[in-house]
Amino acid sequence: MWVGAWLVMWMLDGRIDLANLGMILILACALAALWLPLAASMLSCAAAVLVFNFAFVPPRGALAVDLRQHALLLLTMLAVSWIVSLLMARQRQLIASERLSGLRTEQLHSLCESLREAEDPRRGAVHLREALSQLTGTPATLLIRVETPPAGGDAVMEIGEATPDERAGLWLSLRLARPMGPGTGRHEEQPAWYLPLRGRRASLGAALVPVPLAHLPAKTPALLSHAQALCDQMGLALERHAATQAAAAARDEAHAQQLNNTLLAAISHDYRTPLATILGAASSLLDQADRLSAGQQRRLAAVIVDEAGQLARLTDNTLQLARLGAPSMALHLEWESAEEIVGTVLRRCRQRDPSSRVKARVEPGLPLLRCDAVLLAQLLDNLVDNALKYGGDAAPVEILARRIDDRVVLAVRDRGPGVSAAWRERIFTVFQRGEAVAGPGLEGEAARRGAGVGLAVCRAIARANGGELTLRNRSRGGSSFECALPVIAAPAEPDRERSGAVS
User: For residues 434 and 454, is the Cβ–Cβ distance under 8 A?
Assistant: First the structure.
């Protein structure tokens, strides 16, 4: 650039006046200041003015200056060149500062994004360690509090390596929630920063960032502020995560307590009528056995058996609902045959209803089901019991097993009055017993016996086995409760034989 400027001035020498030649020199100084450091730029400008005086200012070939004619020109050229150099240096400094600020902002944003996407912020601690290490070029160490056991003490997670003294400094910074090290006003003699991971209420960890001597003292305040901002982002994320976990635990506990209270209230209410009926029938048999005919005694005994069965089903459904709602519930999944499950339910139903109103139809060639057979049998048993109760005395009930696409559907169908559209989903909600139904041989109050947990248990069982329970009204009257279970690839032949032996 300087060579080009001098060539232009030599070519224009004698064609333009001395002041215009000086403008070319000032232009060259300004362009050179774009790249040269400040000191080099000012020295080059001073040297250029001296060469310009020697080569172009009369008397040429000497450094003598006519104070009245040319001194002001040379001084002005030098002053303008230095001012331009200062402005360019300042502009470069501002650009570097803005670029550094942008990089730090991007670094902070990247850390926030990684913490936001992580389910547990502790997994994002690696990103914080990388960001802190990039600031000073030295590996950082993190100490993050995991939990506070009831017995006292602290459980922590350490990322990186630290000496016993450094670990003691990390603990001190964590407990005091204050930074320590150069530029912090505390323990300035330390060769590293100890920065707390601060939340709004407490510190949840600390970071150790060694500080090289090259960063002291000029760059310490800006780096320290940025490093503390990164640590505070991690602290806030850890605090939010802890608050979210505590809120979720409180909600689960409140829900479990509410469910327990509701179950107890429902059981205590719905047990009264069957217990009173059983007590009345048993008292009659005990006190008036000699005055009752054989038929009357059988009817009283049948009432006791019926009401006791009602209590047993209510107890089973309530306990099953509580079990399926437990977080640690585990199913006993085995390869089971739909024919055997339906056959088990059919045998139980015919023991309770010898009139053979319950029929079964199983499509041949159904695949094995990966399920809990005991739970599925209870599901079908509840559905059949509802169908017998709400379908009337003469209406038939059918258990159907068939395959539809990639699902095996176990359905219980009846020819009762059906369910209105407003209740097709609500009846699957716990403690919802639907509208009173009037049917042949069915009184409205009798139709509403029970705590309203049977269908809720059925849907919970279906979902626990990977399926779904739905209600469909039949075209000629009646309801069809359909449990659709997924078809899973059948096991190898030895496993199939072993599964059949267990069943």
Answer: no
Spatial distance between the Cα atoms of 69 and 478, rounded to a whole number of angstroms: 117
CB 135 within 8 A of CB 223: yes
Which residues lie across from 358 on neighbouring strands? Answer: 397
Per DSSP bridges, beta strands 397-404 and 369-371 are unpaired
Nearest to 400 by CA among 408, 415, 411: 411
Report DSSP state, residue 429: S
Q: Which residues pair with 145 in a beta bridge?
A: 156
Could you tell me which residues are beta bridge partners of residue 15?
none
Longest dimension (CA), the chain: 154
User: Are the beta carbons of 170 and 208 closer than 8 angstroms?
Assistant: yes
Locus of tokens 């020295």: 43
Secondary structure (3-state) at 191: coil
pLDDT by residue for the chain (503 residues), tens digit each? 888 888 888 888 878 888 888 888 888 888 888 888 888 888 988 888 888 888 888 887 777 776 667 788 888 888 998 998 899 888 887 877 777 677 777 777 777 777 777 777 777 788 888 888 888 788 899 988 876 544 444 577 888 888 889 889 999 998 888 999 888 888 888 888 999 998 888 888 899 988 876 545 445 677 888 888 888 888 888 888 888 888 888 888 887 777 667 666 656 656 776 788 888 888 888 888 788 888 888 888 888 887 887 777 777 766 766 666 665 566 778 898 999 999 988 887 777 666 668 889 999 989 999 988 888 888 898 888 888 887 766 678 899 999 998 999 999 998 888 787 777 777 877 656 555 444 444 444 444 455 566 788 888 888 888 899 999 888 888 889 999 999 987 666 544 444 333 33
- Please name which of 180, 182, 179, 188 lies closest in space to residue 215, comparing C-alpha atoms: 182
